[in-house]
Amino acid sequence: MNGLRYREFIPQIITGEDRFEQILNIFSQLLQYTNGDADEALDWMRQLNKKHKMFDQDYTFDDFKKDLKTHGYLKDQPGQKFQISSKMERYIRSRAFEEIFSSMKRSVTGNHRTNFTGSGDEQTTDNRPFQFGDTTDLLDVTRTIYNAHLNHGIDNFQLQEKDMEVYDTQFFTSQATVIMIDLSHSMILYGEDRITPAKKVAMGLSELIMTKYPNDSLNILAFGDEAWEVSVKDLPYLAVGPYHTNTKEGLQLARHILRKKNTTNKQIFMITDGKPSCIREGGKLYKNSFGMDPKILNRTLDEAEICRREGISITTFMIARDAILQDFVRDLTKINQGRAYFSSLNKLGDFLFEDYISNRKKTYKGG
Length: 367
Fold this sequence. Notes:
Strands 8-7-6-9-12-13 form a 6-stranded mixed sheet, sandwiched between helices. It folds into 3 domains: 16-84; 124-171, no CATH class; 174-357, von Willebrand factor, type A domain (Rossmann fold, 3-Layer(aba) Sandwich), CATH 3.40.50.410. The two termini are 48 Å apart. By secondary structure, it is an alpha/beta fold. The chain has helices spanning 16-33, 38-52, 61-70, 86-100, 141-152, 195-212, 247-259, 294-309, 323-336, 348-357; strands at 74-75, 83-84, 112-118, 122-129, 165-173, 176-182, 217-223, 227-230, 266-272, 278-281, 284-287, 312-318, 339-342.
């Protein structure tokens, strides 16, 4: 008899280790919202358990905390709060990478493809005439002998430099990148959490660069009233402050960092709500909380022009929908000849991924 046959459903048995891995993922997400505060994240876990019953008699909340310490994700110091370990920081970055860049396979090659061929790193299907300085391992023996026969005849066989052909190669190059994260108060204004997705993108991108592009350099800076450099391990702990938005100083610091890099490929990724509201004048801050002050905007656009002259491209990820703010970002992008994306928060990762891998293309596919 044709058709479908059904049997009794047997649920998958979830072991204690499986339970730990599932709940660990939830805990890592909460840590991003609590800026790395383990005690606050654990308190949220207790609240979630009351509603969703994540723990039971077979695997209790205390069992989970014990496993966190046993596996080295938490540091327990007597009389002090729990602290997340460097292992937990790496776990958060790897989860952000998997969530944002899941469509990309890991690789250990660690270079960006250019549009140029020559004496490069990866062999292509094309050939070219031998040039002084080419190595013999690239020699196409079959084509070389064929050319010698064609040019000199079989009876008078000889091999000259003009007969030699080598496999063409593709140039690969390193990239110097600075990620700028806006920590101004507007990143959490009006009840919209913009900073957590921004941090997630930064953590995912840093993990991408460290795993797939080990020859690249990565620097991260935060900016509010002023700009300061932070390390990759600090990303989970970044928090919005009572700051204005000094975009000019952020671009200036990024430019100074990139100036020291020994590569011609330099770029800035700026994640912001696009509202510069202060600059530094004579050691003091000139502020306008309403934003869009012509003096502040013009000084910021001047910095974008300096970046362009120094060969530094700026890609802005605009996470606000205000048309006036978008016009400013378009002006900055036009002056710098960079790129800009106006997207919802859940699309930031996709756009950032596509732009980083395809950084030498002029047009990009939107999401």
